[in-house]
Amino acid sequence: MAKAIRTVKTIVKDISEPLAGIKVLVLEDEDQWDLPPFRPGAHIDLHLGKKLVRTYSLCNAPHENSRYVLGVKKEDLGRGGSRFIHEGLEVGGRIDVSLPRGGMDFDQENMNIFVAGGIGITPFVSAIRHMENQSRANYVLYWSSNGPASIPEMIRPAIDAGRVHISDTRHDPFPDYAAIVSAHGQHSKVFCCGPEPMLRAFEQAVSSWPTERVHIERFSIAKPDIAGSDDTFKVVLSRSGREAVVEPGANIVHMLEELDADISFSCEGGICGACRTPWIEGPPVHNDRVLTPAEREKDVIVCVAGCAGPRLVLDA
Amino acid sequence: MTRTDSKDQFQGGVAWQGTVCFLHRTPRAFLPMRSFESLNLIAGRGIEGDRYLIENEAGFYSHKPEEGRQVTLFEMESLEAIMRDYAIELRPEEHRRNITVRGVPLNHLVFQRFRVGACLLEATRLSTPCRHIEEILGKPVFDPMIHRSGLNCRIIEGGEVRVGDIVRPC
Q1: Model ipTM value
Q2: Does chain B have fewer CB atoms within 10 Å around its N or its C terminus?
Q3: Tally of CA atoms within 13 A in the half-sphere of B130 that contains its CB
Q4: Would you call A33 and B31 a contact, using CB atoms and an 8 Å cutoff?
């Protein structure tokens, strides 16, 4: 069964290596059509191969909407995504990406304090470019690395304007996060991205801060707001025997597509009825807006369904 | 709208005449819609350069072939109603239909034929809202678009459609 297109097709327009172990990719549409818009600090998933999906921040300014720029550090001990990008990706290659997600909401009046560790600079590049494009000076960046800064040219206007503090922890003191976040007034908003130990240290430094003034960038995936169930359950296709575990907040449509379920999806919002399917075991949690109570005794609108029991068995 | 006995203007008991306000297309799923002053409609196939052109098939729903989805229309009045009722600005390039019209009762035209400029269209079904648009826009427009999500049409007679063209019954 043909599957829905779930990704944006791009081609690798350029690859550069401004520092050993750091590659900068430029992705574009094959016809230079605009790409889906994104917010400052947003990130995308790169579909690098079957089951090889990795998330990276977008480094260009959001108003540059005909390309996506990414900075990728090679992690030799990582899970393989950055090695593939560094060793297997070539200019002209095709790569599917997700729609951009996430982003940063800045304080309009007070200071925005960006704290980056190493390649954790990447979400702040689009943020800084956005701020500079808007002629806004109410931000400061503290960027520490265990070595030379990786992609300083991408934020050169901010560096030249004196809004960036760069440190090399091989010879500079380790950043004092408590001092940094308290240096710009109690109404500042703080943002942090970097390796996990750094994030933990930073979280400790801002543990007494109101949560709305703290943004920790961990590439978390926003849960869809149409989640069918608060509990894990298993969806089973009775005719093929194929099954999958549906975690809370997971998109059941994507999972059923992965199982090659013979179910047609359309609106994915519970109103068009295209995915109406008989159910055998459940009972389903019905979140649709089209079936009558009597119809729900036999059928379920799968795209928005949850399950009150451990197994949702579909006659499909 | 006013009643008339004019044969050319009479359809379903009510006369109407509308205008093409905006034209949009995009070559592939998820990519932003781009505005054009004219579009080339190809009879029996779709819009030149659009994602749902038959044999191009690069749209989000292209895995579900549909002969009657060659061109899609949306009402300006619906954009204004969504702003009025939900305080959501949905711009003409955001509803992801091809032709934005004013003064055309789209929901009443299913199975009917009508002209857009020199082109002849046949309405096949109402469009339904989908989560896909919310995913792209990041705006909660699924509920606001229920019952006013536009019209899917087959192209009977093709040609160039331009902004400002008259839309009328036939």
Answers
A1: 0.82
A2: N
A3: 20
A4: yes
